[in-house]
Amino acid sequence: MGFSAGKRKSRDEQDYTVTLASTAFPMDDLSDDVLERVLSWLPTSSFLRMTSVCKRWKSTKTSKSFNLACSQVPLRDPWFFMITNDSKSSTFVYDSTDNNWKNLNHNRNRQDFIPVASSGGLLCFRCSVSGGFLLCNPITGSSRDLPSPISDDNSKPLQAVAMTALTPSSYKLVTISGEAPNLCFRFYESDSGSWSKELNLVKKNDGDEYNDDNDSGTVYFLSKTGHVVVASNNLQRSPSKQYSSVITVKDNAETVYFLSSHGTIIACDLTNRCFTELPKLLPPFLEYSIDLVECNGTMFVILLSEFYESASLRIWKLENQSWVHVGMLPPAMSHELYGREGDINCVAGADDKILVCFNTSPPEVYCRYFVYDLVAEQWSELPKCFKDGDAVEFVSALSFQPRIEATV
Length: 408
Fold this sequence. Notes:
InterPro entries: F-box-like_dom_sf (IPR036047), F-box_dom (IPR001810), Gal_Oxase/kelch_b-propeller (IPR011043), Kelch-typ_b-propeller (IPR015915), KIB1-4_b-propeller (IPR005174), SCF_F-box_component (IPR050796). It is a single chain. By secondary structure, the protein is mainly beta. The longest helix has 11 residues, at about 10-20. It contains six helices and 28 strands. Helix 2 crosses helix 5. The chain starts with 10 loop residues before the first helix and ends in an 8-residue tail after the last strand. Strand 20 and strand 21 (about 320-330) form a beta hairpin.
């Protein structure tokens, strides 16, 4: 894997370079096993640069014991795989450790594939022609084609694609198809290498109480529409976000949250094969753009609305059938979005941060990238990304952990 980045070294790399220069810590005297354990804890970008130090260090990239050591690192700061309007040309990622842009320099040569999901160290692409899927490790460039799911009824539109990494070498893909009230789902598990049969979902009776703390697998899906008054698709989504969804695992229960075009949030219990509508956030006469993310097992909704000649960007979460306000973009920043009729596409990293991509459609393209830290409760903004002197505009992103050991 090759990538280009800024000239500034990260603090981790600077500290590690000092360590290398210190005669009190002779790295050459370390056994291969100890050396691999030390290197496995380096930030991925720092390790890839350090492999140029000597042949011994470079050889660790293909070492099985090094991959095992990397898999024992519980969490890595996320990288954001950025997506342009055509969903194909971008190979840029934002490294949240080094706080800079990188070009992965991987040429997929799969013109019909668009990125649709991510989990762990893997990205998932879907072929717009065949409907098949491609799994890829963006760090190593390794990839694998998955068979297309065979539907009992090809007329059922695909609503969502969700992905979860069970281990660095195993993953699960979930698809939901149909139109309410006729919804169905199926899943692919890498361990079995096959798709499950199609399973139908039925609508839960309105009188039944919805329990968010149940032990069953639950799927949530949410509409994304610009004019909720008529519940239409007037606000078109980026192709990469057409099947946008997130999946959580809590108490061994898998929960998928995905976006549809019906103007409601629907909770689908995969174990009991039923679904029910959840309360709406805003009254139907308001215009808004909406997206959802998952962070540490919790589903968050990000909502951009306009009211009284001002724009508001807020984050919510659902607790006990009620929406709880989590954070709000400062008015001085959100007011700059007013009147632009823009769309938001969001993703959360493994470090309690939510990335919000705001963009408008041509002819006046306007893009901003805001990051909200759920722990520090602070907002920041990503710098512009430049290629050959020109700014590269992104409409959405996928979050992944830069894991060399992740296999497809």
